[in-house]
Amino acid sequence: MPISLIDKLITFVINEILFLIAAVKRHSMRYFLIIIFLTIHNGLIVSQNNIVPQQSVNKLINYNIPLSTLIDSLKLNKMHAKILVSKLKYQLSVSIDSKIIKTYPIVLGTNPVNDKLREGDRCTPEGTFKVKAKYPHKSWSKFIWFDYPNVESYKKHNQAKKDKVIPMNSTIGGDVGIHGLPNGADYAIDTRQNWTWGCISLKNKDINELYQLVFVGMTVEIEK
User: Fold this and answer.
1) How confident is the model at residue 14 (pLDDT cuts 50, 70, 90)?
2) Could you tell me the pTM of the whole model?
């Protein structure tokens, strides 16, 4: 392992320890346990897969301009909006009438590269989905639930079984969506730590803004 990477890992561990100590001083034990859960159980431990190099993230579009201001100033129809997710770019974009209006930084499942084929693989699914519900979430601020698994998801799942890519007794999983983070944990986005079980995670201020635009039936396209 190169010396420069070791230095980065040491710095990361020190920062995590300081953050956890601060969390104990500032917040309740319940909040502290949530942070511990994120750190250990959901994969915030440093690995080559779940931390994205800073230079791999492309420049964001209109990130510092409120989404409502953009839509109003351009006189766009919100009902024509859809969500585009690029896993490789680590970006979620709002598109209206085929024009990208705004992009947000995101993180993914702890296996951020592969397509989701089964429950527990911690991959973020790829394909075209529809929003089926949205609601406040006690841990992640807001939750935008889309219809994974859909017909195409089942085709991939069944083919993977035939090809012996996944065990025959695998289940396809579900409850995948777009959500925020525990309060005070936006650092997971800033440091590009892939921590979810397959969902797409944004900063809370970003998910709260996006939530206002999203409607049931809205298209969500997720690509590699």
Assistant:
1) low
2) 0.75
CA-to-CA separations, 186 to 8, 22, 124, 161, 203, in angstroms, rounded = 19, 15, 20, 37, 5
Q: Which sign, positive or negative, has the C-alpha torsion 150, 151, 154, 156?
A: negative
Q: Cα(130)–Cα(125) distance, rounded to whole angstroms? A: 13
Pairing mode of beta strands 177-179, 141-146: antiparallel
pLDDT, tens digit, 9 for 90 and up, residues 124-140 = 999 999 999 999 999 98
Distance in angstroms (rounded) separating the CA atoms of residues 112 and 90? 9
85: Cα within 13 Å, side-chain hemisphere: 23
- Taking alpha carbons only, the member of 155, 160, 159, 154 closest to residue 174 is 154
